Amino acid sequence: MLEPTSTPNAALLAELAEKVGRLEGWRPPQAEERVSSGFRGLDKILPDGGLRRGTLVEWLAGRPGSGAATLALIASREASRAGGAVVIVERSRTFYPPAAVRWGLDLETLIVVRPRTVADERWALDQILRSQGVAALLAWPERLDDREFRRLQLAAESGGTLGLLVRPAKARDEPSWADLRLLIEPVASVDDSTNAGTARRLRIEILRARGGAVGRATHEILEERRDAIHAEANPVHLAARLAARTARRRSTGT
Fold this sequence. Notes:
The chain is of the alpha/beta class. The protein has helices spanning 10-21, 40-45, 68-79, 98-102, 118-129, 146-159; strands at 34-35, 51-52, 56-61, 85-89, 110-113, 134-139, 162-168, 180-192, 197-209, 217-225.
């Protein structure tokens, strides 16, 4: 688990490179450049029929409990099916560990980074997105200015990493370098007494997409067990084990 100081240094960079470097031998085959979002209906309305590696996707939460974080978590699972790590960058330190497992993620390929400051968070996001051993990055960044966003977009493109950014709906008025912007709003919840859980119906609208499709929307169902995941008044956060898989070690560089 990485906890950067306020001024990232060479030693810290080496530590991050070492942990991600355990999976650096992995590269997605060309046939896997496009990955499913994890939902057939959403894939159907997306211009590419799914999400593309090497790009940023913004999941804008219409309001607390919108399901945006859960959708992004599921997308990270899909991105990792062909190999590579899923790296979570979160500062609130409130993750409920069984959440990742319940949604089908493998703890052996999960890495969590918990920056102490916004500056550390920006630095970590850039370095992780550039790593070729990372299949997907999931984070909850606050305000990103145009320059910071562009840097992250270039980092994702360089590393071939799918960057999943969960942000509040108000961010739609801010500059964005994401290839895809999705607005997620809860429509209804229905208790399921037989499954001891709740089925949530979510509306997903495309606010921005390269290749068109702006304005398209779909509805998806999330079936959640109450013992599996926290209510999303707080984002879904991931506590993880460091990847133990043996692979060629490679420095991410700066």
